[in-house]
Design goal:
Shape: elongated
Number of helices: 24
Helix content: 40-55%
CATH class of the largest domain: Alpha Beta
CATH architecture of the largest domain: 3-Layer(aba) Sandwich
Strand order of the largest sheet: 5-6-4-1-7-8-9-12-11-10
Number of strands: 30
Largest sheet: 10 strands, mixed
CATH topology of the largest domain: Rossmann fold
Mean pLDDT: 88
Distance between the termini: 88 Å
Number of domains: 4
Strand content: 15-25%
């Protein structure tokens, strides 16, 4: 029996975020305190290491499962990151995670090293859980937010999000390989998975070969046009959407690992490790999850044969194998553990001496400090994966070797081998070749080790996790993570504008000068922003305009503009260029349309609590901000369809949780052009946060400045993160304008 899908209120969040990461697991682990209280600790791992800095910089939220089945937790904050838990039942854990994710997709995507199993009930659980994650993300995301979905457990989420929230910017990153079509085609649900991924704007892979495999699967299954990394995907509205599918090789916090490695206590621990192993001439190290893709059996077999053949001896060489527990409820993994431990036991029994152990086998995980000490103690790092998306252990070893010593032996079937070409590259299936490579690594001269390690370190340090995340987000949004404050390029642009003969400062209101609120009548600009506007408006050489989708009456009430401020309302349909003199004049036919438009939208919205209609002189706006995202989107679709069926010549605009109708066509771009002409401006700066502000950005000249507030795609050349940063921007502009006037006054 399938577990029931939770209602939307079970995953309620009381705050929305501009940046959201969605992954199967959260970056925290649950602990029960002595008195039964809930405690959380940060969980180590490649994905967590990669994304924690991004989340802190973006003040974002992380959505995922806590690791505890049949238990629900409220959203909470941990170490500067907002956490939104998604519940999983024990049955869903068995079917969605252990079943479909790890007994179907994992072996299939790793070239069928182990045979995948296909069960319909597993697939049904996968769909159900993916939908739960998608709904949690849809609720937590602000309008136009960036949502970054992680890994193979959640491949259906992008399409589900796209359908529920078409305003979102959606990225997906696949941390494991993507197989060739001949292997992928075995999946009974191959079309559904590809379609799920194509809901994203950018789909990232570890290797160029993986991205190529995906694009070929798209062509074979759907026939969509692909050009290089671009896939043309037709949407339900008949438009074609461009999806980017390319490789973004993931990395590590290289500087953080090096900093740990340089600590005296960690270096002392490395010396203790060598002593505890009998101070052999060479320590070889393997660090892996206990997984059949990691090639642990192959390296143990090769090492055993080298001891048997006398090419290596236990007095000189010891192998330390850390095999952290993994998926021990899955039968394939239980069998693997038994096989490896039997293999290690036999080899130790055959070759170990009283003073020297052939293999030190450790079936548990270690904290990062201990792992860094192991890396420093190891002369040779063995990474012999049979198939691996990246393998961050290889990069961690390199980052720790600030002494330019040590040898990395690396499987050519890892993503890391594309970058770390100065490693000793091997085919782990070739046992004889693997044996020769191990001997080469053990006997490599110090000078050659140093030459290779310097090249490897340069590559890892220059291409760290910050660069990985920034590159992906820049591709996804055109800008990446927006840091708080005013960027250096924007400050340079402000300095240039400051010397303009006649400057027009044009500003959107909601989401730009004033934070977005549930009740539009409650919106107010911050005191900092108001004070800066008053400074700018007080000078004869500068005019300030507020350009809004609000009706002028509403705009005047909430903005309380300083004297002399120009106002544009209803997306340019209304203009107030002089105090009390607004310009609008509707024809009789437009008045009739407006009356019928009001009737239609009222009928559509009447049965939905929380929907709100704002009336404007030339149209109206249907606000859905108080509704769940999916409900609001459905209501907007219904209203749009009814209006289109009954009225011709109606202009429709989609904004942040609002659908606007107008009987007279105009936009913020036209309005900005009229304002520029009225003022006689020699330069313009326009600041806005909404989709409707893109028309204004498009109307700017090359020497003007456009500033987008928040995440989301935009043609604006500059970005700020929030309304607080807009206030700082206006303050800096007023300061620069004052300084420019003072400098000009000193000239005769």
């Amino acid at each position: 029996m399938n577990a029931p899908e939770p209602e939307r209120d079970d995953l309620y969040v009381d705050h929305v975020y501009d940046m959201i990461v969605v992954s199967n697991r959260l970056p925290v682990d649950y602990e029960e305190g002595p008195g039964g209280e809930t405690r959380w600790k940060g969980s180590p791992g490649g994905l967590v290491t990669a994304l924690e800095p991004v989340m802190r910089a973006a003040d974002g939220a992380w959505i995922g499962w806590t690791g505890v089945a049949d238990r629900e937790f409220d959203p909470f904050e941990h170490d500067g990151i907002s956490i939104i838990p998604v519940p999983l039942s024990a049955q869903e854990l068995e079917e969605y995670y252990e079943g479909f994710s790890n007994d179907t997709l994992w072996p299939l995507y790793h070239d069928v090293i182990a045979p995948p199993r296909f069960h319909r009930e597993w697939w049904e659980a996968y769909v159900r859980v993916n939908r739960r994650f998608a709904e949690a993300a849809a609720r937590a995301a602000s309008d136009g937010a960036v949502v970054w979905v992680q890994d193979y457990q959640l491949q259906l989420v992008p399409r589900m999000l796209r359908e529920a929230r078409p305003d979102l910017v959606i990225g997906f990153f696949n941390h494991i390989p993507f197989p060739a079509y001949g292997i992928y085609s075995q999946l009974p649900w191959r079309r559904q998975v590809i379609d799920g991924l194509l809901g994203a704007d950018v789909i990232g892979f570890q290797r160029a070969a993986d991205a190529g495999n995906f694009s070929r699967a798209v062509r074979r299954l759907f026939g969509y046009s692909t050009r290089g990394t671009i896939i043309d995907v037709p949407d339900s509205d008949g438009e074609t959407r461009r999806v980017v599918a390319r490789h973004f090789p993931i990395s590590i916090d290289a500087a953080g690992f090096e900093e740990l490695a340089r600590r005296p206590e960690v270096q002392e621990r490395a010396r203790e490790i060598r002593e505890s192993l009998g101070n052999p001439e060479t320590i070889m190290l393997g660090v892996d999850r206990l997984d059949y893709t990691k090639g642990i059996r192959h390296r143990v077999k090769a090492f055993g044969e080298l001891l048997r053949d006398g090419r290596l001896s236990v007095e000189d060489v010891t192998l330390v194998q850390v095999a952290s527990p993994s998926r021990e409820r899955v039968e394939t993994y239980r069998q693997l553990r038994d096989e490896i431990e039997l293999q290690v036991g036999r080899l130790n029994g055959d070759y170990s001496t009283l003073g020297h152990q052939a293999i030190a086998y450790l079936h548990h995980g270690y904290p990062r400090e201990e792992m860094v000490a192991l890396y420093l103690a190891a002369d040779v790092m063995l990474v012999t994966a049979l198939r691996d998306g990246m393998n961050l252990v290889a990069k961690e070893y390199v980052a720790c070797r600030f002494d330019d010593d040590g040898v990395l032996l690396l499987s050519e079937f890892t993503g890391a081998s594309d970058e770390l070409r100065q490693a000793v590259l091997v085919n782990p299936h070739d046992i004889e070749g693997l044996k020769d490579a191990i001997v080469e690594a053990v006997r490599m001269p110090r000078r050659e080790r140093a030459r290779r390690m310097r090249a490897l370190r340069r590559r890892v340090l220059e291409n760290d996790v910050a660069k990985w995340s920034a590159t992906f987000l820049e591709t996804l949004t055109g800008t990446g993570i927006i840091a708080p404050g005013v960027s250096d390029p924007l400050q340079t642009a402000i300095a240039r504008l400051a010397s303009s003969e006649r400057l027009l400062v044009a500003l959107d209101f909601d989401g730009t000068l004033a934070p977005l609120v549930d009740r539009p009548e409650d919106a107010r600009a911050s005191q900092r922003a108001r004070a800066a506007i008053e400074r700018l408006a007080a000078s004869d050489d500068t005019r300030v305009a507020i350009v809004s989708g609000r009706a002028l009456d509403s705009l005047g009430q909430v903005a309380s503009p300083p004297a002399g401020t120009l106002l544009s309302g209803s997306h340019g349909v209304e203009l107030q260029l002089e105090p009390g003199a607004a310009t609008i004049d509707l024809r009789d036919s437009e008045l009739v349309k407006l009356e019928r438009l009001s009737e239609i939208v009222e009928e559509v919205a009447s049965g939905t609590d929380g929907a709100w209609i704002e009336r404007k002189p030339a149209g109206l706006a249907l606000h859905t901000r108080r509704l769940p995202s999916k409900t609001g989107t459905a209501l907007q679709h219904s209203a749009r369809d009814r209006v289109a069926a009954e009225l011709l010549g109606i202009t429709v605009r989609t904004g942040k949780a609002v659908l606007e109708f107008a009987v007279r066509s105009s936009d913020k771009g036209e309005s900005l052009t009229r304002l520029r002409q009225h003022v006689g401006a020699t330069a313009v700066i326009y600041v806005g946060d909404d989709v409707t502000d893109e028309d204004a950005f498009a109307a700017l000249d090359d020497d003007d400045v456009g500033v987008k507030v928040g995440q989301g795609k935009s043609i604006a050349t500059h970005r700020v993160r929030s309304t607080d940063d807009v206030a700082e921007l206006l303050e800096r502009l007023a300061d620069a304008r004052d300084a420019a006037r003072e400098a000009a006054s000193r000239w005769p």
